[in-house]
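Fig. S4 source data, part A: sequence.
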Amino acid sequence: MQRLLAKSRVRRFARHELVGVEAGEPWTFVIISGYVIVNRTPPKGPRAPVTLLGPTSLIGLVRLLENTQGMESLEPDQRVLYDFSACLDATVVQMPTAQILELLDEQPALWRAMAVMLMKQHRQVLDTLLGAWVGSFSQRLAWTLERLAMLYGSKEGPVIKIGPRITQEDLAALLQVTRQSVNKALRKLEESGAIGIRYNAISVLDLEVLRSHSTAVL
């Protein structure tokens, strides 16, 4: 850990600021606070947001492992590129990926713990992606809010705060709809008693009611 920390650094990023991109020197990121939007740019296609990751998420390591299996031989116009941008303010620890791999290779037993952690994280991402793209828009929005609350929310009694603030623009980008559509759907969820909205901060007031809005997704 001392060897890794000696070459790592804590960075703070403002809203929409680029945290990292899969090009050049490889870095692995751990999110300490805030959220990071993962964006995907397919070959000859438009850049689009894929998912939202919050505190304790690890970014960047898996892609480098893919590159060691021949992905680096692909031509630039055949590669799917990912980049990471801050959603609101975000604090991350940047670690040199090569150093991480070197330390893991020195102590192979640590690979197991790393693999388990990465598989759990990817399962969470896949579950979130499934709910975000199946069903009606209102169902997809309810599912996305539920997942954010369960993964990154802070509980205060029966209330779960999704924080820091996730703006309607961020939700619209993730679900690829207009901000007006998000605003209208959020108001309906608020009227049902599922969520509360204050100063762009969303709190889950009744988790079961929120789940009832996304039942068809499951």
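Fig. S4 source data, part B ends here. Strands lie at 9-13, 18-21, 27-41, 48-53, 58-59, 81-96, 154-156, 159-162, 195-198, 201-204.
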